[in-house]
Design brief:
Strand content of chain B: under 5%
Strand order of the largest sheet of chain A: 4-3-6-1-2-5
Shape of chain B: globular
Order of helices and strands of chain A: HHHEEEEEHEEHEHEHEHEEEHEEEE
Number of domains of chain A: 3
Number of helices of chain A: 9
Number of helices of chain B: 16
Number of domains of chain B: 2
Order of helices and strands of chain B: HHHHHHHHHHHEHHHEHH
Helix content of chain B: 55-70%
CATH superfamily of the largest domain in chain A: Nucleotide-binding domain of ferredoxin-NADP reductase (FNR) module
Radius of gyration of chain A: 22 Å
Radius of gyration of chain B: 24 Å
CATH architecture of the largest domain in chain A: 3-Layer(aba) Sandwich
Oligomer: heterodimer
Helix content of chain A: 10-25%
Chain lengths: 363, 427
């Protein structure tokens, strides 16, 4: 943190700008000028596959960097509305040019991922958070390491592999990735190159639907695959990221071998809006109080009260805004208009919103 | 890729949940009775239709919100920040009077824009749909000694839900004035006009004091812990505001003393004081003209009990008054000059009120309703005459709060309620 930034973020300066922050003023000078807000400009959008892209970003000075495997909130404004999603960083943490990238697979219902893939252009301003998440490599990387991924779950482990390459890692790394086909795989050319050039890493890809000719492994993940690659689960620190099905299988296998403490997992969550579903499905999670309840189909406010919480409320008719709070993720339906919204980190009036499927609110 | 969030301690029970009254607008225990609001003007069927028509207007605007609305509020914020900075620089040059005076004016304008078109409207949640933390109604704190949280409870919830219902809307006369014929007269109301003048000069302090809700606490309707929390929040906010305007900026001006004169910091302090008074006078005028002109209607709890959405809308319409003026005037008043439209649709971005007003006019004509509007001078005159006339002791003893007749009436009512409670307990 530079001395100027530190000074601007200090309490004496805040006394002058109260009740606002310094950023509220700096923002008017230049959008990238900030002491608290993390922002970035899009440098380049690279098409990885027909449905996946990598977005290269130049963050402002507030960005504190990331550990490989972490994710970041990514907010773009479309038609006046900020849409926020969480994406994993895919680049090496050792990049010298100060840039970093996120890689995203466009989800059919994912507004932001679709926008990223089809419309995002260089120079666009992106609102970020600091990098977050504990799916990261330890400070001292052990001798044996397994990086296992499925589909677009490759992004955080790709960041790890690239970083290990750039730090001159000396241990033994097995990089095992499952994709439907080569067309469906991100970073294919770079993975080919890494497979040929890295001495410390064994890069193996399995195409589950269209296996490559003469492939050493085929089909979905199984314990046989690990055995074939000579990975001893009990002694190998393992990172797995991908769809819930893959993680469940891997977890089961590790549990079976009593190697659960070696396993680090990252679920790949894409909010899905099932408009056809009756409202009373899924679970409603009250994140801050750690309560999970079956969705009963009534408003979030009523369900919170039924769960013993006492959220602030006022008119209970969508007028006064007293009950508005952050919905972390999931889809909600407005009881009066019937409108369904599914943005991440969106403020909603819980007295007039019912959950549609799984919903997580900051309550 | 999953969401990783730190677990926090379970939330404390929050203030708005702590009262035992039914939070749903005026739904009584006896749900068979129907509200009588507006029955002199329309039938129940018409009221129902009226409600649907206004719901449709609201939905049409909500569906249309987009880039233009976001650009608008950001333009206003930019203008406010520019006035703010120009003002702060200007008041540092008291040795050059024209710049000093312009500085005070800029600072006053900045505070007015911040409190009204930005603060008031953002805290209503008008821009929550943008999902931008800078204009998030939950997070916003305004440049005013009243803390946002307590103001939002008293204003967004109490005032906007129970608008102009005696005994429920604490904003009818702010427990200070007799502004409506239905309010009982007390001797202190003889000072209606001088008190109003004082409140005008120090309005932000009045808003802060009103938000502490001392009367609710003394009346046993608020817990001690809640009252203490309110006092603490108010004190913290007052401290921050006072430190900024009357300590930090004057102290910064001390740096100029060696090059200019010893009184420069005092001039900076005085300029901040004047700018705050400018904002106080302006906001007081706009707000008093919104509900207190003569023909604005008030309601009793019984009239509004079990009201429908159409009746709720009608109560907002009859209980508010507009002020006509130029576009700049409307922006400076936070579009509260469109008080009627604001009360019908408090969470629609204020720049949409002129457009919504056309639909409201159409419905007003269709149903033959009253639409209270007029020039600023007319509305100020009306409010002042009301304050003057209603400050005089009424000849009807039932309108005098501490007359034997009123006391007997209240005693009778208390006993009737007690009897009803006992009957219920025995049954």
């Amino acid at each position: 943190m530079g001395i100027v930034r530190k000074a601007l973020a200090s309490r004496p300066v805040a006394a002058f700008t109260s009740p606002h922050t310094v950023d509220h003023y700096l923002d008017q000078v230049h959008p990238m000028l900030a002491v608290h807000h993390v922002r970035a400009r899009v440098v380049e959008v690279i098409r990885e596959t027909g449905v996946a892209s990598t977005v290269v970003l130049r963050p402002n000075g507030t960005w504190e960097g990331f550990k490989p495997g972490q994710h970041v909130e990514f907010g773009v404004e479309v038609d006046g509305k900020r849409r926020v999603r969480v994406f994993s960083v895919s680049s090496s943490s050792q990049r010298k040019d100060g840039l970093f990238s996120v890689s995203v697979k466009a989800h059919p219902d994912g507004y932001v991922s679709q926008y990223l893939h089809h419309e995002l252009s260089p120079r666009t301003l992106v609102h970020l958070s600091q990098a977050d998440g504990d799916f990261v490599l330890p400070a001292r990387v052990p001798e044996d390491l397994l990086l296992l991924s499925g589909g677009s779950g490759i992004t955080p482990v790709m960041s790890m592999l690239r970083t290990l390459r750039d730090t001159g890692h000396r241990g033994r790394v097995t990089f095992l990735h499952y994709a439907r086909s080569r067309e469906d795989e991100m970073f294919s050319d770079e993975l080919d190159e890494l497979a040929a050039t890295l001495d410390f890493a064994r890069v193996v890809r399995v195409y589950t639907r269209e296996p490559a000719e003469g492939a050493e492994l085929t089909g979905r993940f199984s314990l046989e695959h690990l055995k074939h690659l000579g990975v001893d689960a009990a002694t190998t620190l393992s990172y797995v990221c991908g769809p819930a099905g893959l993680i469940a299988t891997v977890r089961e296998a590790y549990d079976g071998m009593g190697a659960a403490e070696q396993l680090r997992m990252e679920y790949f969550k894409v909010p899905t809006v099932d408009l056809e579903a009756a409202d009373a499905t899924g679970t409603l999670t009250f994140e801050d109080s750690g309560i999970v309840a079956e969705n009963s189909g009534t408003t979030i406010l009523e369900q919170a009260e039924a769960a013993g919480l006492k959220p602030e409320y006022g008119c209970r008719m969508g007028v006064c805004n007293t009950c508005a709070l952050k919905k972390n993720h999931g889809a909600v339906r407005h009881v009066i208009t019937g409108e369904v919204t599914a943005s991440t980190d969106e403020t909603v009036k819980i007295c007039v919103q019912v959950p549609v499927g799984d919903v997580n609110v900051a309550l | 890729m999953s969401h990783y969030r730190k677990k926090r301690a379970p939330i404390e029970p929050l203030s708005a949940s702590n009262h035992n009254k039914a939070p749903i607008p005026l739904v009584g225990e006896d749900t068979t009775t129907r509200a009588t609001v507006g029955l002199d003007l329309m039938t129940y069927e018409q009221l129902e239709e009226f409600g649907h028509e206004l719901d449709a207007v609201r939905q049409r605007v909500l569906d249309d919100l987009g880039q233009a609305d976001a650009d608008y509020i950001r333009r206003v914020i930019k203008a406010q920040r520019i006035f703010d900075v120009l003002g702060r620089v200007g008041i540092f040059m008291p040795f050059f009077p024209p710049v000093f005076v312009i500085g005070i004016l800029c600072l006053g304008i900045s505070k007015i824009l911040e409190n009204m078109e930005i603060g008031h409207n953002v805290m209503h949640g008008q821009y929550d749909w943008m999902n931008d933390p800078v204009v998030d109604g939950k997070k916003y704190e305004w440049d005013n000694v009243a803390p946002a949280q307590d103001w939002k409870h008293g204003h967004n919830f109490i005032h906007h839900t129970y608008t102009n219902i005696h005994g429920m809307d604490r904003d009818i006369g702010y427990n200070l004035f007799r502004i409506d014929d239905e309010q009982p007269w007390y001797p202190s109301h003889r000072f209606n006009l001088p008190l109003a003048t004082m409140l005008m000069l120090f309005f932000e302090w009045g808003v802060m004091y009103h938000g502490i809700e001392l009367d609710e606490y003394l009346g046993g309707r608020m817990s001690k812990s809640e009252f203490k929390a309110r006092k603490k929040r108010a004190w913290q906010k007052v401290r921050r505001q006072v430190v900024k305007d009357y300590v930090a900026f004057p102290l910064a001006a001390v740096a100029l003393v060696p090059f200019t004169s010893w009184w420069v910091p005092l001039a900076v302090l005085g300029a901040n004081f004047v700018a705050n008074i400018m904002r106080n006078i302006w906001t007081f005028i706009i707000i008093f003209c919104g509900h207190f002109p003569a023909e604005v209607e008030t309601f009793t709890e019984d009239e509004a009990l079990n009201e429908t959405r159409g009746q709720w809308y009608l109560r907002q319409l009859l209980g508010s008054a507009n002020i006509t003026g130029s576009p700049v005037f409307h922006v400076m008043s936070g579009n509260l000059s469109y008080q009627i439209e604001h009360h019908l649709f408090p969470d629609i971005p204020a720049r949409r009120y002129p457009e919504v007003a056309k639909d409201v006019h159409r419905l007003v004509e269709k149903y033959g309703l009253r639409y209270n509007t007029g020039r600023l001078s007319k509305q100020i005159g009306s409010v002042a005459r009301q304050l003057g006339a209603l400050g005089k002791k009424p000849s009807d003893p039932y309108k005098v709060g501490n007359s034997p007749e009123s006391k007997a009436l209240r005693r009778e009512k208390r006993e009737a309620e007690k009897a009803a409670r006992e009957a219920l307990a025995n049954a």
